[in-house]
């Protein structure tokens, strides 16, 4: 954190110029037990047509019926034991810059690291890649406009607001009016509770200038 003093007069004005953080997140994997209903698919039998599939599956009532019908049209087996799913291990660089008064810009760069580990049969990864978020923020209120370029090359313009301890946001604003965007977006809602004390202006009077 690189600090300075005196750019703003309000009591809740920022007292830093830059904030920079680097972290490695979600290292390891989770293990699960296969269910008796787990299935492993290895392709359809020869000669399977639409009419056959419709006839086989139109009267299914439970998992047992589904497995019996699948065995007649596909090569399936029931796996056993424990399997692991690697967590979305990634390295994240965060940079936050104070521009003027209550205006800021935050940048976040995320790089998935699963490819540098031993190959796993199952793994997950985060969509996040690069996010640039200009914002106007005071202690109790704020407006955020994140622009996210994800790992699939999609650009998502978002919007979020903060009121007191509560915040609400949309990953993708077009999620509101475009039904086709719903599988590729969503919203988040949360609350942060902390002790809101007015900062003593002398608290940062000895910080070096930048």
Which features characterize this protein?
mainly beta, 210 residues, 15 strands, 40% strand, disordered C terminus, eleven-stranded antiparallel β-sheet, two-stranded antiparallel ribbon, elongated
Q: Overview of this structure, please?
A:
By secondary structure, the chain is mainly beta. The chain is 9% helix and 40% strand. It is built from two helices and 15 strands. Helix 1 (50-57) runs antiparallel to helix 2 (63-73).
What percentage of residues falls in helices of 4 or more residues?
under 10%
Helix/sheet category: mainly beta
- First CA to last CA: what distance? 11 Å
| Model regions low in confidence, pLDDT < 50 over at least 5 residues | 201-210
Q: Number of DSSP helices?
A: 2
- Gross morphology is elongated
Rg over CA atoms: 26 Å
Order of helices and strands: EEEEHHEEEEEEEEEEE
For the largest beta-sheet, the strand count, sense and barrel status come to: 11 strands, antiparallel
The number of distinct β-strands equals 15
Q: Compute the average pLDDT.
A: 79
Strand content: 35-45%
